[in-house]
Amino acid sequence: MRFAQYRSMQAQVMQAVFKKVDKNQLGSVISMMLTNLFQIMIEARANLTQVGYVAGEEFPEFSDAKESLSKVFENTFMFGDLLLRRPTPIHVEYDQHTDWKDILTWAYYICSKSGVFLPEEQQFLDLIAKESGILPKDANFQNPYLDDSEKPRKRFEDPKPAEKKKPKKIKRGPRIIHSEF
Asked: What CA–CA distances, in Å, run from 172 to 86, 129, 167, 169?
């Protein structure tokens, strides 16, 4: 399966999960997802370090190392989907774990130096890095992936009072009195 197809399927699954999860349970679901995601990335990092893989080199020859590199790619983009679509609840959990930022910085570097991603995928990686604090945000940075529930809402303004309608005047001409008939 191609990476783009896998990512599309991954995004659909995440959207379905967010629609089904009660808002009261959202925090615990996110915590569980991120804990598992970063645990997989920690294990993948250990495997790649053990075989001596350096970012930007050719893909590793060993199947375990290839699998680990694949997990880094998949989980980095999955975290990006979560972070860019639901930044507020993700930051609540992510910001509590300083070690996760180190892992994500390493994963971003691995992904960026791999040279396997299309320009739009590289742009997505850069958005992840900006939203997570790896790269500084531009003054005009805007997250294009925000769900409607995350977009800043306009401040409520009182509606203008309805204008009172003036009754229409019916023009009346001279009246005929019954005696004139």
From this structure: 66, 76, 15, 9
